[in-house]
């Protein structure tokens, strides 16, 4: 199992969000720490070689960033703060943009690797066996119960030989 704790962040992860507002995407960082709040901050959104810079507004409890939706292509955009002196500080968040779906503010500066649990239930042979069993159940539903039981038994034997 993975770690369910949120990553360390420069803002409140729970109350921060992203949404589409008209033709703009609005990202709201709740309770930003003092190092990311200020008057002349900008937020840089990066996706591969694409870079979009947006002005950040507000202070105190909320820092709001607005960028035209037309500037953002589909994908997961990294977010970082650009301070007035030109210094860049990554934020522990990303922006997910997927066509007409709502935009999503994701936790963490980078995605962690997805782990697929290992086990017999996820093996290809087990999937084939389950699919075959479902198909067989539908096929023998019209037979008398004793005959259906015999057909299932024979099919199980044949599947064990075939699937190993």
Report on this model:
The structure is a single chain. This protein is of the alpha+beta class. It has two domains: 96 residues, Sandwich (Immunoglobulin-like); 44 residues. 21% of the residues lie in helices and 37% in strands. The chain is built from two helices and eight strands; from the N terminus they run ββββββββαα. An eight-stranded antiparallel β-sheet has the order 1-2-5-4-3-6-7-8, with no helix packed on it. A hairpin with a 2-residue loop joins strand 1 and strand 2. The protein is elongated and about 80 Å long.
Give the number of domains. Answer: 2
Structural class: alpha+beta
Element pattern in H and E:
EEEEEEEEHH
Q: Strands of the biggest beta sheet: in what spatial order? A: 1-2-5-4-3-6-7-8
CATH level-two architecture of the largest domain? Sandwich
Write the layout of secondary structure elements.
Blueprint lengths: L11 E10 L2 E7 L11 E6 L2 E8 L4 E7 L6 E8 L5 E10 L6 E4 L16 H16 L5 H19 L1
Helix pairs in contact: 1-2
Task: Pick out its properties.
Immunoglobulin-like, 2 helices, elongated
Give a brief rundown of this model.
Helices cover 21% and strands 37% of the residues. It is an alpha+beta fold. It has two domains: 12-107, Immunoglobulin-like (Sandwich); 120-163.
């Amino acid at each position: 199992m993975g770690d369910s704790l949120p990553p360390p962040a420069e803002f409140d992860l729970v109350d921060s969000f992203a949404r589409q507002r008209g033709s703009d995407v609005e990202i709201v960082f709740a309770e930003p720490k003092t190092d990311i709040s200020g008057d002349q901050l900008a937020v840089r959104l990066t996706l591969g070689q694409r870079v979009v810079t947006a002005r950040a507004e507000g202070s105190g409890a909320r820092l709001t960033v607005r960028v035209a939706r037309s500037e953002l292509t589909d994908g997961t955009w990294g977010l970082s703060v650009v301070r007035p002196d030109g210094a860049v500080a990554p934020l522990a968040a990303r922006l997910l943009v997927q066509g007409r779906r709502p935009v999503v503010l994701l936790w963490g500066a980078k995605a962690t690797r997805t782990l697929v649990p290992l086990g017999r239930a996820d093996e290809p042979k087990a999937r084939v066996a389950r699919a075959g069993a479902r198909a067989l159940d539908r096929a023998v539903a019209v037979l008398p119960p004793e005959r259906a039981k015999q057909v299932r038994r024979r099919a199980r034997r044949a599947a064990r030989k075939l699937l190993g």
